[in-house]
Specification:
Blueprint lengths: L2 H17 L19 H4 L3 E2 L2 E3 L13 H7 L2 E8 L5 E9 L6 H4 L2 H7 L3 E12 L2 E12 L2 E11 L2 E3 L2 H13 L6 E7 L5 H18 L2 H8 L8
Antiparallel strand pairs: 1-2, 2-3, 3-4, 4-9, 5-6, 6-7, 7-8, 7-9
Helix pairs in contact: 1-6
Length: 231
């Protein structure tokens, strides 16, 4: 969509939102709508060939301080998984039940990783293909000293995966028109690997295995996918 057309569409939606603001003032959170998610129970500790590692042997480095996490998010889940070949994937999920202010958007990995001392070598848009549809993602290559950590992440708002600020604003306005408060989820996976291409391939496999293992309702909340992907 061209920039002018995007601006016109956004302006129209903003006018509609303003006109309908009194009648449809956002007041209902996801939990009120029966769409709440519990990260702890939604994500299995074992699925496919992946098994959660005990916390004492996990190697996750969270680029955000605990104080910041507690302030921004209503739920956080951090785990490390290993498969039969020894491959390790670090999973970090952060959920906020009120995203009208866009706090999750403001703390994307390309912002918080460098803020905690990581070097950001690349940041490109990508796609994770699954049996349920494609997920628009960002791929980062980062390092902290000798630690090379490729990262894949995406952001969902409501029941949609969004990649740009425009996409995010459209979802916010759509929900506002029906009196719904937008919630958001940041889904991040990473691995320690000197070969980014290999790391991203392993991360794609992890995502596919996870989405196959969760319920349709939780899959929608985690990825914005209703699936299955049409042949």
């Amino acid at each position: 969509m061209k920039t002018v057309a995007k601006a016109a569409l956004l302006a129209s939606l903003m006018i509609l939102t303003s006109v309908g603001g009194i009648a449809a003032r956002p007041s209902a959170k996801a939990a009120d709508r029966g769409n709440a998610i519990s990260l702890e129970t939604a994500v299995p500790r074992q699925f496919g060939t992946w098994t959660e590692l005990p916390q004492s042997t996990a190697v996750v480095v969270n680029p955000q301080t605990q104080q910041l996490l507690d302030k921004i998010y209503s739920q956080v889940l951090t785990r490390t998984y290993v498969d039969g070949s020894g491959a390790r994937i670090m999973l970090s999920l952060a959920y906020g039940d009120d995203q009208r202010g866009g706090d999750l958007q403001a703390h994307m990995p390309e912002v918080c990783y460098p803020a905690q001392g990581f070097k950001l070598h690349s940041n490109v848009a990508g796609t994770v293909q699954t049996a349920f549809g494609d997920i628009p993602v960002k791929r980062l290559s980062t390092s902290l000293g000798p630690r090379l950590e490729p990262v894949t992440y995406w952001f969902t708002m409501g029941d949609r995966a969004v990649q740009t600020g425009f996409d995010k604003r459209l979802v916010q306005l759509r929900l506002a028109l029906t009196g719904q408060i937008p919630d958001g989820l940041l889904f991040r996976i990473s691995s320690i690997d000197e070969n980014p291409a290999h790391a991203f391939e392993q991360q794609n496999r992890f995502v596919n295995d996870l989405l196959q293992a969760v319920s349709a309702k939780d899959r929608l909340r985690l990825s914005g996918l209703r699936g299955p992907n049409p042949a």
